[in-house]
Design a protein that fits this description.
Layout (H helix, E strand, L loop, with lengths): L1 E5 L10 H9 L2 E4 L17 E4 L5 H13 L4 E5 L10 H10 L3 E4 L4 H9 L12 E5 L12 H5 L4 E5 L5 H11 L6 E6 L7 E6 L3 H7 L6 E5 L27
Parallel strand pairs: 1-4, 1-5, 2-3, 2-4, 6-7
Antiparallel strand pairs: 7-10, 8-9, 8-10
The chain binds S-adenosyl-L-homocysteine (SAH).
Amino acid sequence: MVHIVGAGPGDPELITVKGQRYLQEADVVIYAGSLVNPALLDLCRQEAKIYNSAHMTLAEVVAVIAEAEQQEKMTVRLHTGDPAIYGAIQEQMDEFDKKGIAYDVTPGVSSFLATAAVLKQEYTLPGISQTVIVTRQEGRTPVPEREKLHSLAEHQATMCIFLSITMLDTVVRELIDGGYSEDTPIAIVQKATWPDQKIVRGTLADICAKLKAEPMDRTAMIVVGRCLDAVYEPSRLYAPEFSHMFRRASQ
Ligand code: SAH
């Protein structure tokens, strides 16, 4: 059996209880070494065989897992954040299906949500934006034309942009070309929930200059949108005159 597990954004306490149990029980662990916090591997049994997938091809990962399956061992495939977001798990699951290898998926805290937590920010403010767009600037992986940043910018939603910090100049240009005004707030969080976490806030007009003064490495999330500095309408959920399934309106 293979358990595909989301490790969370970095803080080892942000893995799920189930993910933690699988790690403690695993015979074989293959972790995404570029981003998974190695502190999580302290949970593993001493006899567990541990592989860093940063140095492996898909075929090698699948070969290690297939061999473990033959020996009826339990494997954890540990991904950063939540595996469904830029985790490249589909191609692995397709291989498991082809080979008849049983697997399941345990979700994790994605870095775009850990970023909201460390910014102490709600992304969905009433009257400002009720939509969160998770996206990336095109890199080696192509992005379909209809999803280019300048097209998505048209919606003025809250946007969480992954895998793009090294292309910040292009990101900012696309966002402005697409319709965000230059005074739109933007926040950049490097290594959210890690001990060396860093936050830089600015506007589309000044963020590139700010980052030149304080460079960020690759593990950074870009959040853009009015929610970051908005004067918003309070949610109806807790409004006294608003009743819902669990609470009657007060008179
Ligand atoms: N599956 C992961 C994303 C993997 S892609 C998830 O759900 O979070 C890798 C990108 O995720 C990085 O380029 C960066 O944009 C973002 N990222 C991952 N961990 C992060 C963290 N702790 N803080 C900020 N951004 C992070």
